[in-house]
Amino acid sequence: MSNPRWIHTEPSDSLPQCLVYPARSRHTATVIFLHGLGDSARELGPELKLLHQHPDLLHVKFVFPTAPTMPITAMEGNKMPSWYDCYAFDHANRTEDEIGLYQAASWIHDLINEEERDHGIPSNRVIIGGLSQGGSVSMLTALTTKKPLAGVYLLSSYVPLRKKTAEIVTEFGKQAPIFWGHGMEDRQVDFSVWKELAEVLAGQLEIPFISPDPSVKMKRDELEENGIAGLRFYSYEDLPHWFNQKELEDLAIWISVLVEDK
Q1: DSSP label at 13?
Q2: What is the dihedral of CA 180, 69, 43, 59, to 10 degrees?
Q3: All structural domains of the chain with their residue ranges
Q4: Which residue, 257, 248, 201, 251, is CA-closest to 229?
Q5: Which residue range or ranges hold the Phospholipase/carboxylesterase/thioesterase domain (predicted)?
Q6: 158 CB-contact burial (10 Å; exposed 0-12 / middle 13-18 / buried 19+)
Q7: Residue 37 and residue 81: Cα distance in Å, rounded?
């Protein structure tokens, strides 16, 4: 098992440190995982042991950036790690910090470029995603990418600037496969609201929307046989605003199919 290490990155406006779990065999793909509001890479990374130590992902490096600490309007100005300011917690209808969102997306674009420049991993071997707020930044990064990405995943998350999707999406942004996992007991980012809006997003991107039965176990051969393109929305029973082992197992399978070891 490779030990994690902290690295300093130098993208625009000095993104804080990243926690990196090196690949355990020859490095041929990278996954970037963004935490949610108030969390950090130091706290989240160890909780995702099932993912970054999965036996099908020996060739994958995992990068966990930590957001800057900033005052949050909806939290009465209290400071905490956050990718952008939150003016309210009605994710579907609130006014959004568009400048902050784009700044955060630029940091992730820089990390993707760094993988190619410094480590020889092309963008189409990089998967980005995250939990809640981290997933929203990843979605914006994927929508606005000027390079092909292997895929983007959202866990208990939401689409930022969703009324502007048609204006901002690039051709590469329409091509990235999407894994969307959401707990059916999520009251913070409401499950029923965002399942509907996820289907709206698929329509805007003109990609298939697939919503498998939550009682059916994901099978690798089914993904390989039927293809992995489109937005796959996975529902998890009895799961609130977080993740569980089943979701991480599904995500690991999805990642392994997208960036199969070479």
Answers
A1: T
A2: 60
A3: 5-258
A4: 257
A5: 20-202
A6: buried
A7: 6
CB 91 within 8 A of CB 58: no
Q: How far apart are the first and last CA of the chain?
A: 20
How does pLDDT run across 68-86, given as a tens digit for each residue?
999 999 999 999 999 999 9
Active site members? 132, 186, 241
Supply the pTM of this predicted model. 0.94
Task: Output the CATH code of domain 5-258.
Answer: 3.40.50.1820
Taking only Cα atoms into account, the Rg of the chain, rounded to an integer number of angstroms, comes to: 17
Neighbour count for residue 58 (Cβ, 10 Å) = 16
- Alpha carbons 161 and 174: distance in angstroms, whole number: 16
Q: What is the pLDDT of residues 164-201, one digit of tens each?
A: 999 999 999 999 999 999 999 999 999 999 999 999 99
Q: Which residues contact 92 (CB under 8 A, 6 or more apart)?
A: 158, 190, 193, 194, 197
Dig out the tokens for 261 from the structure. 């070891």
Structure tokens at 232: 């796959």
Count the Cβ atoms, other than its own, within 10 Å of residue 203. Answer: 12
Question: Quick one: tokens of 44?
Answer: 């989240």
Closest CA to 45 of 13, 7, 74, 15: 7
- What is the 3-state composition of the chain as percent helix, strand, coil, each rounded to the nearest 5? 35, 20, 45
- Contacts of residue 206, defined as CB under 8 A and 6 or more positions apart, other chains included, come to 174
